[in-house]
């Protein structure tokens, strides 16, 4: 029984816990929902409810006076808001992700989800946001159960074919420009790179470095053995020859120099005289 309940927890088959609150941290029924909303007491993710006020809040693409708004102006307005929130919240720790909903339903419109690297960073940010205002409106912040935004976002919206539009029950996350993303999140990549380079080398790395240094010193003629002695030239030369695979060989005597024709004739005449004297 317990395994069955665990397998259906947070799904449509779960008749006790609200699946939408579990997946997106919000529910269209709110407190009137017939299923439980298990609010976490600690989480790396914070939900800032209805915080982003888009300029075309009443009608998409149209301002409050009924005038059309340039889409570039809407994007600039959003990115200014995004950068303000990011810079303020990054004071409390490293931000893993910052997502702003583009949905139009009351329980999701303008929702801001910020996920920190550590839970204590999210707790510090939550405490600092209590009683604060943004653009003349109070900030409503709380821990969110959302930790995997892949389950919370609408896949059809990412493929530009969601037929529910802004009233979809899954997140339609607004996208910032590439330059702004590189500017805000690039600082963490630089920090992680410098932190990884500053780590002490592994024993294997140190051992390989010692071998490389020893070979370099041997090539320079500054190699010393374990006892601190520097081998003489004969040892170094013989060692280098053996290292290259050439075995030590004993030198054979040099061949005698060849005699000239006059010397050979004189030697032959001498042999003939010695033979005649013996006869």
TrEMBL record:
Any single Gene Ontology cellular-component annotation: nuclear speck
Keywords: DNA-binding, Metal-binding, mRNA processing, mRNA splicing, Nucleus, Repeat, RNA-binding, Zinc, Zinc-finger
Zn finger intervals (C3H1-type): 12-40, 148-175
Sequence ranges of Basic residues compositional bias: 192-207, 241-251
Region feature (Disordered): 192-279
Name used for this protein in its record: Zinc finger C-x8-C-x5-C-x3-H type family protein isoform 1
CDD domains associated with the record: RRM_U2AF35B
GO BP annotations listed: mRNA splicing, via spliceosome; photoperiodism, flowering
Function according to Swiss-Prot or TrEMBL: Necessary for the splicing of pre-mRNA. Probably active at the 3' splice sites.
Start and end residues of each C3H1-type domain: 12-40, 148-175
InterPro entries tied to this protein: Nucleotide-bd_a/b_plait_sf (IPR012677), RBD_domain_sf (IPR035979), RRM_dom (IPR000504), RRM_euk-type (IPR003954), U2AF_small (IPR009145), Znf_CCCH (IPR000571)
């Amino acid at each position: 029984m317990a395994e069955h309940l665990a397998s259906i927890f947070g799904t449509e088959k779960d008749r006790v816990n609200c699946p939408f609150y579990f997946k997106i941290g919000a529910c269209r029924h709110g407190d009137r929902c017939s299923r439980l909303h298990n609010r976490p007491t600690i989480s790396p993710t914070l939900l800032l409810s209805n915080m982003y006020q888009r300029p075309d809040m009443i009608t998409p693409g149209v301002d409050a006076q009924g005038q059309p708004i340039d889409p570039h102006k809407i994007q600039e307005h959003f990115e200014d808001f995004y950068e303000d929130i990011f810079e303020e919240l990054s004071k409390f720790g490293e931000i893993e992700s910052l997502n702003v909903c583009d949905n139009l339903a009351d329980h999701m419109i303008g929702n801001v989800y910020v996920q920190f690297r550590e839970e204590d960073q999210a707790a510090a940010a939550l405490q600092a946001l209590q009683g604060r205002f943004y653009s003349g409106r109070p900030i409503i912040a709380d821990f969110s159960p959302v930790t995997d935004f892949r389950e919370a976002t609408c896949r059809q919206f990412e493929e530009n074919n969601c037929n529910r539009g802004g009233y979809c029950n899954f997140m339609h996350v607004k996208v910032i420009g590439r330059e702004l993303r590189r500017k805000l999140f690039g600082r963490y990549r630089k920090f992680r790179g410098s932190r990884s380079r500053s780590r002490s080398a592994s024993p294997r790395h140190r051992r390989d470095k010692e071998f490389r240094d020893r070979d370099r010193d041997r090539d320079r003629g500054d190699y010393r053995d374990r006892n601190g002695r520097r081998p003489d030239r004969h040892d170094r030369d013989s060692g280098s020859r053996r290292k290259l695979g050439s075995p030590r060989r004993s030198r054979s005597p040099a061949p005698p120099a060849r005699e000239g024709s006059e010397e050979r004739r004189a030697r032959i005449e001498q042999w003939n005289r010695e033979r005649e004297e013996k006869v």
